[in-house]
Amino acid sequence: MNQGASVAKMNPSLQTDSTAFTSSARDRLTDYLARQKGSRKAEIVPLTPDASTREYFRIPWKRASAVAAVYPAPFDPAVHPYLDITRLFLESGLPVPEVYDVDGAAGIIVQEDLGDRQLFQVFEAASGEEREGLLEAAIEVIAQIQAATPKAFERDSIASRLAFDEAKLAWELNYFFEHYFGSLRGETLRHGEAAELKVELNDIAAELAACPRVLCHRDYHGANLMVDDKKRIRIVDHQDARAGKDCRASIRTTSAKSFG
Asked: Which domain holds residue 130?
């Protein structure tokens, strides 16, 4: 019996078509909170969605709050990518949210609430000196992620089995090609121009894929970095971490140029 069928047998409200839930994310979260001993009256606040099928909510948790990620299907916590990468990062001392609870049968992960201060928002309001400090801290986190490469292989993390290989890099560059010229610029290149550019992008993918690899976040930018209430940089949306080009030399050069 697959996991979706097992879940449906345990709880008829979670009857599935294939493995997807038919009940809403909010309904499942409400049921989950009702089962928690000592849980305060549930005030569920939807958060801004990201580009995925997950839904996020701020919920009461003990004497504070937490963030619940609610997935569209049940999952096995032992092999779930987000949980696997979170365990790796926490063991490596990386500043990811702590996981408070997991209910794979309901598709729910409850984690530390880091607040609403995304780095790019904080950066816009910061002074020049504060910006330098934030950039330096963010660059240091990249180096810390790369330093976790050996541990990823030691514990056979999913991140050690995924890579920015030539096929993945070609897909990413083609995505850029389509959405930069099509979605953003609304521009249609002449056939010859498009063909020439795609050849160059394929060459770039092949060159990058041949470089030595270290662990990387995969989507490292100002919206996926939070500044917590202690003014520390924290990492989110790290479930797609994988091996990629070793850019430690570039990081050192950038740091030296930017911060003297």
From this structure: 119-259
